[in-house]
Amino acid sequence: MARGRTRWWWKRETRSVTVTQVTRSLEDSEERPNMAMELNGGSVIAMVGKNCVAIASDLRLGNQALTVATNFEKIFPVSEQLYIGLCGLATDVETLRERFRFLVNMYTIKESRAISPQAFAHLVSSTLYEKRFGPYFIEPVIAGLEPITTTPTDGSAPTTEFRPFIAGADVIGCLNFAKDFIVTGTASDKLFGVAEGLWEPDLGPEDLFETISQTLLNAVDRDAYSGWGAVVHVITPDKVVSRTLKARMD
Amino acid sequence: MPSMEHVAHPQQRAFNPYTENGGTILAIAGADFTVIAGDTRQSEGYSIQTRYAPKVFRLTDRAVLAVNGFAADGNMFVKKVKQRLEWYRHAHAKDMPLRAIARLIQTMLYAQRFFPYYVYNILGGIEDDGTGAVYSFDPVGSYEREACRAAGAAQSLVQPFLDNQIYFKNQQAAPGQTHPSHLPLPDVLSIVIDSFTSATERHIEVGDGLEMYIVLAKGRNTQGMESLHGVQELSSKLDGERVFVVRRELKKD
């Protein structure tokens, strides 16, 4: 009898332990967001102008609150008039930069022509979606000029026009073709607010440069994970102007 | 051996006394006026509870309080502040000065240090010296006098825009010139309206309606308000500081 009682108590203990066990969800949640997107910090923005586009980013690389480098560029040229900004986990920035370089080189060799911004956006999308269940922690921004070649029927030489193109995507490649601006990164909410207030349609290259610069600088100055310098690329049909901005370094 | 099915399992219960009701508030001080504004949407999660729930309240002819966060706490807090101001009027036969209201709000918030009002306060109005003033508070009473402040759901969208447009951050003054420390009333009003239309565009908890309170210093004319339509005066007398409210529609989607 005594032996039986002992066993009864022991079993009850075991049971109560099992019941109070806490199960944690492995999915992202409000309480435990995906830390990879905020680990290194950084922000990118792209804007459409009249016959031009601009893309800009900060220069910070951090390890959480510790700033590791202030010369970490996140925007890379794809072709002469096409740039991509890679925002998120720094190791994936490097990986994807090299992967896109390889894929674009293969495309250029096979097709014997430069990749169009539209095609490149879909290449980015499918590359990200390939890793649907273990994604690269990158939200890309694409900015470029789409060449529109028209061949006149009267036999005269074909003419090429350029249409501004920007696109953004989430970590698994869901594309967003906005006609005003695209923002990503740890300062994205700030960038949305300022850009919505400053941006207007049909800005020329100089006004677009001022608008994107002011938007980026004022947004990153309110974000602890972004800032420490900035670069802006303004893409026009005949040239790309890249400028490094003087920014707050704190 | 007894069956274990009837044995009570340890159970966890939780009651969360707080809710976040969305919305955004904003105040900007001028040289001799202050504008205090807030949207009128009240939401809980993804549901809109009402499209008209005021968040900005006239306290006296020279003080306006905007309250954002948990609406129930906000309404109760405003009620208690108004009660304290009435007691002050009965005791001293005058309205409490703005800086005194600011300190009163601090002590009232800190009194609830271990069960706080879940509310961000922005107090705007006219100081005794006739200058426009904005005081912003955290939920437990830390406060600061500033020229402008945004709070609430779209604070992160609006505050950097204000840094740029009010404080001229990242802007260089023309050679030989300096940035103005205070903007004229029409400029401030258009910045406030632009801030809220931008926030409405990009934040789901902001929208429906906009209420802007304008407090003018004693003796200041209504210059800069001529072009405003639908202005309603709320002042109790015409020879002191004057309070006006202007209402505007915001997008409802």
Automatic annotation (TrEMBL), chain A:
Its main location: cytoplasm. GO terms for biological process: proteasome-mediated ubiquitin-dependent protein catabolic process. Keywords: Cytoplasm, Nucleus, Proteasome. It comes from the Eukaryota. Transmembrane segments: none annotated. GO terms for cellular component: cytoplasm; nucleus; proteasome core complex, beta-subunit complex. The 26S proteasome consists of a 20S proteasome core and two 19S regulatory subunits. The 20S proteasome core is composed of 28 subunits that are arranged in four stacked rings, resulting in a barrel-shaped structure. The two end rings are each formed by seven alpha subunits, and the two central rings are each formed by seven beta subunits. The catalytic chamber with the active sites is on the inside of the barrel. Component of the proteasome complex. Belongs to the peptidase T1B family. PROSITE patterns: PROTEASOME_BETA_1 (PS00854), PROTEASOME_BETA_2 (PS51476). This is Proteasome subunit beta. Component of the proteasome, a multicatalytic proteinase complex which is characterized by its ability to cleave peptides with Arg, Phe, Tyr, Leu, and Glu adjacent to the leaving group at neutral or slightly basic pH. The proteasome has an ATP-dependent proteolytic activity. InterPro entries: Ntn_hydrolases_N, Proteasome_beta_3, Proteasome_bsu_CS, Proteasome_sua/b, Proteasome_suB-type. It comes from Dentipellis fragilis. The lineage of its organism: Eukaryota, Fungi, Dikarya, Basidiomycota, Agaricomycotina. It is found in: Cytoplasm; Nucleus.
UniProtKB/TrEMBL annotation, chain B:
Keywords: Cytoplasm, Nucleus, Proteasome. It is found in: Cytoplasm; Nucleus. It comes from the Eukaryota. Pfam families: Proteasome (PF00227). InterPro entries: Ntn_hydrolases_N, Proteasome_bsu_CS, Proteasome_sua/b, Proteasome_suB-type. GO terms for cellular component: cytoplasm; nucleus; proteasome core complex, beta-subunit complex. GO terms for biological process: proteolysis involved in protein catabolic process. PANTHER family: METALLOPROTEASE TLDD, PROTEASOME SUBUNIT BETA TYPE-1. Component of the proteasome, a multicatalytic proteinase complex which is characterized by its ability to cleave peptides with Arg, Phe, Tyr, Leu, and Glu adjacent to the leaving group at neutral or slightly basic pH. The proteasome has an ATP-dependent proteolytic activity. Belongs to the peptidase T1B family. The 26S proteasome consists of a 20S proteasome core and two 19S regulatory subunits. The 20S proteasome core is composed of 28 subunits that are arranged in four stacked rings, resulting in a barrel-shaped structure. The two end rings are each formed by seven alpha subunits, and the two central rings are each formed by seven beta subunits. The catalytic chamber with the active sites is on the inside of the barrel. This is Proteasome subunit beta. It comes from Dentipellis fragilis. The lineage of its organism: Eukaryota, Fungi, Dikarya, Basidiomycota, Agaricomycotina.
